[in-house]
Task: structure prediction
Amino acid sequence: MKKGLKRREVIVPSCANIVLPIALVLGAYIILHGHLSPGGGFQGGVLIAGSIAIVYVAYGGKKVSETFNPKRLKISENIGALGFVFLASLGIIYGTSFFRNVIYRGNAGKLYSSGTIFWMNFAVGYKVLAGIGFLIIVMLSSLSSDKEE
Result:
């Protein structure tokens, strides 16, 4: 251990380096398999967005501001919402009802077995991870401004 480093400065980043990839992979897994198992876009998106809080706890607010761009997250949230609305509207485009499952469904039990539902789940996950990520950054920035006062 380097001279002058506190134990916390070694343990917390080391633990974050272990937990962060697990959280990201598990969140992606939950989003992709949401139509086959409990969970889905919302739960996986929140889990992935939680990685911002992990980075903050381990490395501080400066690393969060260097790594994550709030403007890009806001734009990504809008893209996710538009993607969801577009996928829901495919039923109307194909001449049936809103939210109708019109994309090829595949084989039951396989990863791509639900057609439009799979893509809607993905769009919700993308929107939630961007939206919750943006909210976490806003809350963390208010914490750092409180410390400066």
Residues 23 and 48 are 6 Å apart (CA to CA). The chain has five helices and no strands. The chain has one domain: 8-148.
